[in-house]
Design brief:
The structure is a single chain. This protein is mostly helical. It has one domain. The chain is built from four helices and two strands, in the order H-E-E-H-H-H. Strands 1-2 form a two-stranded antiparallel ribbon. The longest helix has 12 residues. The mean pLDDT is about 85.
């Protein structure tokens, strides 16, 4: 994760940050991409949004049902990584 310093001159962004101190925000771009703006200590909302992400939950459920595993040696071979 990367940290970005917000300039005090960025009025719109600072206004959004002030709002996010009280309530987490979902920022939606014109093309529908969504982002979460929340205080770092407040992950409850992020967890809620993640659990409501149907595509992600379906992927995790599918992966949890997988029975076949790959050994470390097989993974190294597939990735072309030599064991030291």
């Amino acid at each position: 994760m990367k940290t970005v310093q917000v300039s005090p001159r960025s009025r719109t962004l600072n206004d959004l940050l002030r709002q996010a101190r009280h309530n987490n925000l979902i920022l939606r771009t014109a093309d529908g991409v969504e982002f979460i703006l929340a205080e770092i200590d407040d992950f409850d909302r992020e967890i809620e949004l993640t659990r409501n992400n149907k595509k992600l939950m379906a992927l995790l459920e599918k992966r949890a049902k997988q029975k076949k595993t790959v050994s470390a040696a097989e993974a190294r071979m597939r990735l072309g990584i030599a064991k030291d």
